[in-house]
């Protein structure tokens, strides 16, 4: 919804005039959730303040700690499973586990954080998510 609490979003009805952008495709590609063309990230993990293609304001996008939670859950399962498989098959010393798992965890963290952060920002835009308010809070 447009308004002072959600700058950069189109007024009601205007969004339907734009071609639909898949939040899944835009998020995985690291593209703007509004147009699907402009870059979402400024560097490795920092969000751009605005889309360079359509001008959509990205400063209101806030995935919070969500990406980190998903990365911990996903990589915890993968790294734990890999560690168990290596231990069951080869019984290597501890330093071999570290040699195998530390690069997997480190690289996987950076790669997954970027992808999941992009997905959460795009789905946040797609579903018009915003900060929750109680009914007793005064309207701005």
Q: Which structural class matches the secondary elements? A: mainly alpha
- Poorly predicted segments: none
Number of discrete domains:
1
Estimate what percentage of residues fall within beta strands: under 5%
Straight-line N-to-C gap: 14 Å
- Seen as an oligomer or otherwise, the chain set is single chain
Q: Report the strand count.
A: 0
Total of DSSP H or I helical runs spanning 4+ residues = 3
Order of helices and strands: HHH
Determine Rg (CA atoms, Å). Answer: 20 Å
Helix content: 40-55%
Sheet of most strands: none
Tell me, rounded to a whole number, the average pLDDT: 86
Write down the overall geometry.
elongated
Pfam family, one: DUF983
Keywords: Membrane, Transmembrane, Transmembrane helix
Produce the secondary structure layout.
Blueprint: H1 23-29, H2 66-90, H3 94-126
Helix pairs in contact: 1-3, 2-3
Protein described:
- It holds the Pfam family DUF983.
- InterPro entries: DUF983 (IPR009325).
- The chain is an all-alpha fold.
- The protein has one domain.
- 46% of the residues lie in helices and 0% in strands.
- It is built from three helices and no strands.
- It has helices spanning 23-29, 66-90, 94-126.
- Helix 1 packs across helix 3 and helix 2 packs antiparallel against helix 3 (94-126).
- The longest helix is centred in the C-terminal third of the chain and has 33 residues, at 94-126.
- The chain is elongated.
- The chain starts with 22 loop residues before the first helix and ends in a 14-residue tail after the last helix.
- The model has no long low-confidence stretch (mean pLDDT 86).
